[in-house]
Amino acid sequence: MADERVIVTGAAGYLGHRVCDRLQQAGYGVVAVDLFPRGQQTLRQLLGPDALLVQADVRDLAAITALAREHRPVAWVQLAAKVGEKVCDEDPALAEQVNRESALQAAQTAREHGCKTFILSSTCSVYGIARDKAVAETDPANPISVYGRTKLAAEQLVLEQANGSMKSVVFRLSTLFGLSERMRFDLTVNQFAAEAHYENRLEVYSGASKRPYLNVDEAGRAFVWTIQNNLDSGVYNLGHSRLNYSKDEIVLLVRKHWPTVTVENLGAGKDRRDYVVNFDKMARRGFVVGQDVDEGLGIIRDFLVGRAQPIDFRSKLYEAT
Predict the structure, then answer these.
(1) What range defines the domain where residue 205 resides?
(2) CA distance to 11, 62, 65, 230, per residue, from 106 (Å)
């Protein structure tokens, strides 16, 4: 199957490492595309010396066209994005270019070169504020940020590229947690774990606000499963209904693993997102999520305990780029 190539953009990111690893384990030939602002070392170590790592900007039409022409991928995974409220708010124009325009460009290029499945990584942040019920894919989106708006716009453009020969799949991802070769500690569960471990103290904003969570490796598994099972075009919430948690509920789980941690509740924060999500559609297709946040926290704790040197987890090295 290694002759079946899959192009992965944003391959050097937190999720990208897990997607590439899962694809390679499944026997696909991975074409890992990224700007590699932090170098290629971790991805090269993960995928091996013969891995196809390509430094390219997803906004560069000539570059991605050349990749598609050379590799004729059976699938294209578009992870490349400006991720999160903070990063997108810092440069909305760049977020528009990377999140919306490059996604459309990639989907068109993939279709023109015989790709069978195009998968866009989107976000449950498109729901914004939704607490009256668990929102499903058919419910109206309500993005309240540049991040959510650019991702929602990209979804529609990508879906419009589907035809008889190429499926267009959009995953609205839950907030990710867990271990990756390219760690992030600006995500709620990972951040709380690091704060509890190194500082024995949590500062919690908007503790009652809810959102769903998903282990990053299980997200990676979902992308491979989609290619293998020829999932129909459409939007799919990716996660599990039992993993809708408030921050206060996450704190209770953190205390199981770091019993002496102190907590300071700081009231409402700048991030107003607050939503509960329904994941029945993907479950009906046969994809089942396993790991809970409690188990994930235990794995992160063991990882932190086992390190010879502490992690400077507040460094920008561990944030989205």
Answers:
(1) 176-212+241-276+291-318
(2) 15, 11, 8, 19
| CA atoms of 270 and 68, how far apart (whole Å) | 41
53 in any annotated domain: yes
**In the predicted model, what is the mean pLDDT of residues 42-51?**
94
Angle at 186 between CA 184 and CA 191, to 5 degrees: 95
- CB neighbour list of residue 165: distance below 8 Å, 6 or more residues apart: 111, 114, 116
Cα–Cα distance measured from residue 128 to residue 210, given in angstroms and rounded to the nearest whole number: 11
Identify the three-state secondary structure at position 305: helix
Which residue, among 316, 321, 310, has the nearest Cα to 195 in the 3D structure?
310
Three-state DSSP class for 132?
A: strand
Phi-psi region of 160 (alpha: psi -120 to 50; beta: other; left: phi over 0): alpha
Distance CA 259, CA 312 (A): 22
pLDDT of 201 reads: 97
How many domains are contained in the chain?
2
Answer whether residue 261 is part of any domain: yes
CATH code of the domain in which 134 resides: 3.40.50.720
Are residue 97 and residue 184 in the same domain, yes or no?
A: no
The pTM (predicted TM-score) of the whole model is 0.96
Residues 245, 292 contacting (CB under 8 angstroms): no
